[in-house]
Structures are given as C-alpha cells and as structure tokens.
Design a protein that fits this description.
The structure holds 2 protein chains of 2 kinds.
Chain A lengths: L1 H18 L8 H8 L1 H19 L6 E5 L5 E5 L2
Chain B lengths: L2 H14 L1 H10 L13 H26 L4 H16 L8 H31 L2 H4 L8 H7 L6 H4 L6 E12 L5 E13 L5 E16 L9 E7 L5 E4 L3 E11 L6 H32 L3 H23 L13 H22 L2 H6 L8
Antiparallel strand pairs in B: 1-2, 1-6, 2-3, 3-4, 3-5
Helix pairs in contact in B: 2-3, 2-5, 3-5, 9-10, 9-11, 10-11
The chains are: A alpha+beta, B alpha+beta.
Chain lengths: ~80, ~375
C-alpha cells in the first residue's frame, strides 16, 4: 500500500503542478513554511525582527532561519 | 413569424457570440476574472465577434480535417438550407446533419476554451503582462500584492530582485466613531468588486498597534506604541474603511551554497524542462495528425497525455521535501517508468504505425 500511496502522491503532485493557480499571494516555499507549525513560528518571528530593523533605520535587513527540513533560508526585507 | 430572421438570429448568436464569450471567460480567469464583465457593451460585443470569427475558422478547418469532410460538401448543404429559408420554407434537415451541427458547436466551444486558457497560460508563464503594459490585466492590485510590480519599468530602478515569499500589509482604518487604528499582518487573500476596485483584505497573523502613555503621571505626555496580537486565523478588513495602506515584501535571498553546483543544477533543470515541453508538444500534436478516425485520435491523445503526466510526476519526484511515507521512493519511480512506457506504446498503437510512415517517410529504413 505504501508504494501505491507514493504513486498517488507523485501523480497528484504532477497534476497540481499543471493546474495550480499562479495567482496565490503566498509563494510555494512560503506555503510549505506556513503549513508547518514550527517553521511558521520561526518565519513570523523573523519577519517581525525584519520589520523592527527597518523601523530602526537599517537598510536591507536579513534574517536566517533553519527549517524543520534542515534547510536554511535567508529572508530579506528591502 | 419570420422564420429566416429567427434562424439567422440563432445562428448569429451561436456562431459569432458564444465562442468569443468562452474564449474571453477562460482568458480572464483567476484573479482577473472580473475583467470579463468590464468595459462598454458595444466594445465587448465587437471583441466577441472578432474572436468568434477567428475560432470558427480554426474549428471549421479542424472539423473538416478530422472527419475528412470536403469543404465543398459543407457549403452545398448550407446552400440547400439557405434556399429553403429564403422561400420561407422549413429546410429538410436530416438527422446526420443535426448530429454534425451539435458536434461542430461542441468542438467550437472546446477550441474557444482551449485557446482562451492557452493564451492566459502563455501570458502569465512568460510574465508578458508584467513586461509589457499592453498585456497587463486591469486588476492592478494583483501586481502590487504579489510583488510583480517590482519587475515593471517604473519600479525596476529600485533594483529589488528576488522571489517574494510573502507580503505584509500595514493599514490605517477609520472606525465608525472617527478614531483611527493601525493593523499589520500577512496578506493571504483579497477580493475585488466587479469594477476592479479593492473590496476586502484578509490578513493572517494580524496585530493591532496601540498607543499608550509612557507613565501614570498626567504631566508626563510621552507616548509609546505597543503591538498586540489579534487572536484568530483570519482578520477581515473591508477596503471602504481603509484610509491608507503600506505594503512590505519579504524576499527569499539566493542560497549561500556552492554557486557552481547551483549553476549546474539549474542548467540540468532547464534542459530537462525544455525536453519535457518538447515531449508534451509531441503528445498533444502527433495523434491529431497521424491517427486515422476521430476516436483513435482521441484515445491516442489521452494515452500520450497520461504518459506525459507520469513523466512529469517522475521528474518532480527528484525535487521533494517530504519525509517518510510521503516521499516517493525508487519502487514507486520504477512503476512510474513502466506506466510511462505502457501508455506511450498504447498511444502510438492507437495512432497506427502505417500512417506514421506515410507521413514521415524519411524515418523508414527500408524503401
């Protein structure tokens, strides 16, 4: 059943890739982050820190976060 | 009752209005769907007629080719009908003629939907609406809220590049008692009315700015701002209450890994992407040219489309972030490869091999 489930996931991903709307306001990466509870908190806190840095007058502040998949991303607010 | 006028009216609407309606409905889709009802009525009728003529020419060509019906036979049948109508007599219509008319109308609708969707997809895929103002849709808010506006001429000078992860909004709202409040949050959705004006904003992780006195003393007039979380999953703000709003984009910076590896991976992805697009084009076009008979063309097309869908799922399986049971393993990939081959061969079988060599004689190894 696991292989069948993987098959279903693979085909579902292909169909979503073809028919997903490109009008979403959240980027695909952002959607993956927001759907994970741990990553969501990290992301929103990083965005909050960026906002405070910009209010403080810092130009192009950056924040690095490590997601639950061990991927490190850098968020920039110009 | 004037039979001719009635029949002409019906034929006019079916032939010159409906295909254009479907084309525009599927071109203006998603966040741009409200544009379908915008504009002067006369302007919309004229553009409908223009696109309908274009679609009818294409449909007529396709229908005659697929059913192997000579164009002269269609003209002679229509002349027979016309000669009866002119004499105010009801035309002698056979059942097969009605069947052909229904199929033709259905095909014209399908062609209109296909062309409209393809045109929308083409414009959005290559961001032609962002690069060239002539293609730009009237929903300007979409370009501001997604960050696409930064790629237009007017904003390019600011040099802001990168992928926009999310958009944060700061709004000042006027309350019914005249006071103002400021809210901030991540924009997750918005709606526009039928005229294209902003209607509602939906924020997640919404917070309210609060201004407080810094001390208990009446003499001390220092103020401080604090931000308070608004509990809830979605904060709805009607646009009519908004005095002004500020948009902040959060970009995903480029990775700080090995640049050479990234270039290699990107090149490989580009090559695979181009190869897939060519294969997809082949699966879409080949059966309609080669296969004999309408039903064999259709089944050949369906099976070749299945094979291209399985191929896409195989390619996407190498770019996945899921863990555990949701990750596509090599067992599933092997089954996908088998399905690709089976569907491809069945598609070619329906297309027929004899016609293949007649159409592409240079492929034949022996004369």
């Amino acid at each position: 059943m696991t292989v069948l489930k993987q098959l279903y996931i693979a085909v579902n991903r292909a169909i979503s890739f073809m028919f997903d709307s490109d009008d979403d306001l959240l980027n695909t990466n952002a959607k993956d982050i927001i759907t994970s509870p741990e990553d969501r908190i990290q992301y929103l806190e990083a965005v909050d820190r960026l906002r405070k840095k910009r209010i403080g007058g810092q130009n192009n502040p950056e924040e690095k976060i490590t997601l639950s998949s061990n991927e490190t991303i850098t968020i920039v607010s110009y | 009752m004037d039979l001719g006028l009635t029949l002409y009216g019906i034929a006019y609407i079916i032939a010159l209005i409906i295909p254009g309606l479907f084309f525009k409905r599927f071109y203006f889709q998603g966040k741009f769907s409200k544009e379908f009802t915008q504009g002067l009525f006369a302007d919309r009728i004229i553009t409908n007629i223009f696109w309908s003529i274009f679609i009818q020419i294409g449909t007529l060509f396709l229908y005659c080719y697929w059913h192997e019906i000579p164009y002269d036979r269609i003209v002679s049948n229509l002349n027979l009908v016309y000669s009866k109508v002119v004499k105010d007599e009801f035309p002698d219509i056979q059942f097969f003629f009605i069947r052909h008319v229904i199929k033709y109308i259905g095909l014209s609708v399908v062609v209109a939907i296909g062309l409209g969707s393809a045109a929308h997809f083409f414009v959005r895929l290559f961001r032609l609406d962002v690069r060239f103002s002539v293609f730009r849709f009237s929903n300007q808010w979409h370009y501001y809220f997604t960050g696409d506006i930064l790629k237009t001429k007017g904003f390019k000078i600011f040099g802001k590049k990168g992928v926009v992860l999310s958009t944060d909004i700061d709004v000042v709202i006027k309350e019914s008692d005249g006071r103002t409040n400021m809210f901030t949050g991540t924009l997750s959705e918005y709606t526009v009315d039928r005229f294209g004006d902003l209607e509602t904003l939906f924020l997640t992780n919404a917070r309210r700015w609060k201004v407080k006195k810094d001390s208990e003393s009446q003499a001390d007039s220092r103020l401080r701002t604090e931000i308070k979380n608004i509990p809830g999953d979605c904060f709805v703000i009607p646009y009519k209450n908004i005095l002004n709003l500020n948009i902040r984009y959060n970009f995903l910076s480029k990775g700080d890994g090995n640049e050479n590896f990234n270039i290699l991976t990107r090149s490989l992805i580009s090559v695979l992407g181009v190869a897939y697009v060519l294969f997809l084009f082949f699966t879409i076009v080949y059966p309609w040219i080669v296969a004999p008979g309408f039903w064999k063309k259709l089944f050949s097309f369906l099976f070749l489309m299945f094979s291209s869908t399985f191929l896409l799922s195989l390619l996407l399986s190498f770019n996945q972030k899921e863990q555990g049971e949701n990750k596509v393993g090599w067992g599933a990939r092997a089954i996908i490869v088998l399905l690709i081959v089976i569907c491809f061969l069945v598609g070619l079988l329906f297309a027929g091999t004899i016609e293949f060599y007649q159409n592409f004689p240079f492929v034949r190894l022996r004369s």
